[in-house]
Amino acid sequence: MDGNLSRTLSTVTVWAALAILGVTAMLTGTRVDFIMAAVAIGAAMVATIVVWTSGRENEPTEAEKAKRRGRIDQMLDKLNEAELEELRARLAESDGERVMLDDLLTGRRQRS
Which single residue of 25, 54, 67, 82 could bond 32 by disulfide (Cβ 3.0 to 4.6 Å)? Predict the structure, then answer.
């Protein structure tokens, strides 16, 4: 789900719950103190702030990954087959897997 959509739904849910609480209190005739109302509104405001500020630290990282992905694609485009094979061999030496480079090359070929 899109980040802003989930944040919006969470915000609507928090404030709808507050509205339902208020309407229920009015319909049942229970006396809601000013302090209780202030606490409920304050909690809804804090929840809204938390919902909208959480995950912000990840946004620059995602932008950096997108930039890096473009640079990697450009570098791979410049390599000839011998250089690609050498890169595969060096990657396989370090961790025993060749999947990552093959995935990059497959993705590059599909986008071309």
Answer: 25
